[in-house]
Amino acid sequence: MNLGTCSPALFVKDIVRSKEFYVNQLGFAVECDFGTNIILKGGFALWQVKDDHLIPQTLGVANTLNRSSNRFELYFETETLQEVYQTLKDAGVDFLHEVHEEEWGQHTIRFFDPDRHLIEVGETLKQLIVRLHGSGITAEEVSAKTGIALDKVVKMIAG
Question: For the purposes of burial, counting CB atoms within 10 Å of the CB of 78, is it exposed (0-12), middle (13-18) or buried (19 or more)?
């Protein structure tokens, strides 16, 4: 078996509202817009599935748009975490948590899109490594804390 590209599709209740959020709030560009199915540059899609489509007909309409559970999250990295955080906070986005340091040291935020899909944005791994090393700990200690192989840590510290 040889599977190709993997592109998650988020089932959304209101395609216009979701497109506005991902384009205007998060800054994604639209690669293709088919009306109720929008492919965003970055490798995922938004899909307002019609009630008579095979998926909701098989799973049930309520299950297709179940807003009460978060079974996965979209994860992104950025070099401007504080800026992203402030922009989203100013826009009134609903946060699961604000800037938080994970046990491996990475700074992250988690928030919800209009359909309550969970989104995480974290500082880049290179930023994490450089920041930890800059705080006075050795490359070996950075590797131990982050779980990133020592040779990769050394390369990222070097530039």
Answer: middle
pLDDT tens string, the chain, 159 residues long: the values are 666 667 788 888 899 999 999 999 999 999 989 898 899 998 889 988 777 777 777 777 777 766 666 667 788 999 999 999 999 999 999 999 999 999 889 999 999 999 888 898 999 999 999 999 999 999 999 999 998 999 999 999 998
> Which pTM value belongs to this model?
0.80
Q: What is the identity of the amino acid at 100?
A: H
Question: Could you give the C-alpha distances from 127 to 9, 27, 58, 80, 105, in angstroms and in order?
Answer: 29, 21, 45, 10, 11
Q: Which of 61, 56, 64 is nearest to 115 (CA)?
A: 64
Distance of alpha carbon 131 from alpha carbon 113, whole angstroms = 29
